[in-house]
Amino acid sequence: MRRMGDKIVADTCVFIESIFGAEGNDSEIFFASLEHNDARLVFSREIIGELMYILKKKCNDFSLSEEETKEVLDNITAMFQLGKSVNTKFMRVKVPRVKDPEDQMFVIAAYAADASHLVTLDKKSGMLDLKHVPFICCTPGEYTNNNDEQIIS
Hints:
Layout: E1 7-10, H1 12-20, H2 26-33, E2 40-44, H3 45-61, H4 66-82, E3 84-86, H5 104-112, E4 117-119, E5 136-138, H6 140-152
Parallel strand pairs: 1-2, 1-4, 2-3, 4-5
Helix pairs in contact: 1-2, 1-3, 2-6, 3-4
C-alpha cells in the first residue's frame, strides 16, 4: 500500500539534473513519478526565486535560445502553480542547521509545509545527514525506488 499525498521540497540541484542531465536520470524519473505517487511539490518564495534565477543562468550557460529558455521557465512556472506555496517569513519553529547556509531555505520550507520529504542530490550541504526531523531526507532515486517498492507490495 502506498502513501498518499506526499509533500516534497526539492533542492534546486534536482531540477537542474532533471533538465540538463543525461536522459533518464534519477531526477527526471523522480519528477515524472510525482503525479503517479500522488505527490505535490512545495515552494517557498526563496526557493522559487533561486530556482528561476539559477535555471535562467544555466539556460544561458548552455546557450539555449530565447524560446528554449522560455520553455524551461514556463515548465517550472507550471510546476509552481500546481505545487504548494509556503510562507516562511514568520515561521517560529527552530529548525536544524545544515552546513551550507544557502541550502537552509529547503529545511525551513520542509518544516513550514509539514513536508513528508526533502529531496536533494547535495551530499556536502548536510541535508541528507539530518536526523530527528519530521520528514525523510533522500535523493531522487531513493524516493522513486521507495515508492516503487510500496506500489508493488
